[in-house]
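FAQ

Q: What does a record look like?
A: Structure on top, sequence underneath. For example:
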């Protein structure tokens, strides 16, 4: 079963040896010792609102912002623990703006026990091979790790991402830059979605991985949302065994039903039948991600300038993916000028011409005629395709 295979991969690539197992017992978000520590030392006040002043003076928040944040801290009667947390964060390289960002995410971080809650997690990040600046970036984008248990949450999530993305380097790259990496439960979303796709839909794990590498948040959506996407793909007649099935799901994940229906109406206005629209999606669903206005302009050009029929474009919907301004229009103008000069043999059809790289197009259709038809280069320069020599 796919789930068993995945489990083996996770165990084989385990991150647990990166740090000492004895640390794991102490990595709960709030320690019972916090209240005891808060009762002594630091500034002591019976006024529950004194933390508002603390957030202003020690953290740099504006009074209105501090007033919104202080409620989870109203039980504190001492600044000893918040002082320790702030000092620790500063020692780890977080500046004032970074600290405010973290605390804004959850003021209760000021209640963390530095030795039990924070120090081991920063050590774990260093054990992963992250530099101090990398750790700061990771914390600012994933400050939720402060409230996660390393053994039960952080390690399993990192292992699962590693199995999906294919390398630890890529995982760490996302970890440093993507704030959503720890925003979703692997048990409530990622694992159920993987099991549904592989076991119930019969999609090979490698195909799922291809989409996740391109669009990691695809696998973190709600399981019921993913099932709804599968229903939409089934209704269009996209075979689950087709390589286009996962691409269709990915497109549907980013294209709402409203935007999808708007594109159906647009293509219907240009003469596409319902079956032609479905056929185009089955062959190349990516065109659905094009903005409504740009899709209209592309279809209008192919239909009314190039002269293609709706059925022709439905059969070759990949043509809609090419840049209109940088590829389609300039290459069409070049080939039309060559025909006008009697220099185009007609051996190459325009759809094939569009597939050529810029260099290949220049070598085959422009450079051989640069002496007799110098305006060909001008066409490409205006389009921004041909620069300098």
């Amino acid at each position: 079963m796919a789930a068993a295979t995945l489990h083996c991969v996770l165990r084989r690539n385990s991150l647990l040896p990166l740090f000492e197992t004895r640390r794991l017992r102490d990595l709960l978000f709030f320690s019972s010792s916090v209240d005891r520590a808060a009762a002594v030392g630091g500034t002591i006040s019976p006024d529950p609102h004194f933390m508002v002043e603390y957030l202003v003076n020690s953290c740099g928040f504006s009074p209105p912002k501090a007033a919104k944040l202080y409620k989870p801290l109203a039980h504190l009667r001492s600044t000893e623990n918040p002082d320790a947390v702030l000092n620790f964060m500063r020692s780890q390289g977080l500046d004032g703006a970074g600290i405010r960002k973290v605390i804004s995410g959850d003021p209760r971080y000021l209640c963390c026990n530095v030795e039990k809650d924070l120090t081991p997690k920063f050590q774990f990040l260093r054990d992963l091979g992250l530099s101090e600046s990398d750790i700061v970036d990771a914390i600012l984008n994933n400050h939720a790790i402060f409230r996660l248990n390393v053994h039960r949450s952080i390690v399993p999530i990192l292992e699962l991402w590693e199995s999906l993305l294919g390398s630890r380097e890529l995982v760490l790259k996302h970890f440093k830059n993507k704030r959503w990496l720890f925003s979703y439960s692997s048990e409530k979303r990622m694992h159920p979605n993987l099991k549904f796709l592989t076991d119930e839909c019969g999609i090979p794990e490698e195909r799922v991985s291809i989409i996740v590498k391109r669009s990691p948040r695809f696998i973190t959506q709600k399981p019921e949302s993913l099932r709804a996407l599968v229903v939409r793909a089934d209704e269009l007649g996209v075979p689950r065994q087709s390589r286009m099935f996962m691409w269709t799901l990915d497109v549907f994940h980013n294209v709402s039903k409203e935007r999808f229906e708007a594109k159906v109406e647009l293509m219907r206005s240009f003469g596409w039948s319902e079956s032609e629209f479905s056929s185009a999606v089955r062959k190349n669903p990516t065109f659905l991600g094009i903005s409504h206005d740009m899709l209209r302009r592309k279809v209008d050009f192919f239909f009314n300038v190039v002269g293609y029929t709706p059925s022709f474009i439905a059969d070759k919907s990949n043509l809609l993916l090419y840049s209109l301004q940088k590829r389609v229009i300039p290459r069409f103008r070049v080939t039309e000028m060559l025909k006008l000069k009697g220099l185009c043999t007609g051996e190459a059809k325009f759809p094939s011409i569009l597939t050529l790289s810029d260099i290949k197009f220049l070598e085959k259709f422009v450079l051989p005629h640069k002496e007799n038809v110098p305006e060909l280069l001008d066409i490409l320069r205006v389009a921004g395709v041909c620069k300098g020599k």
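Q: Is there anything notable about this one?
A: The chain has 22 helices and no strands.
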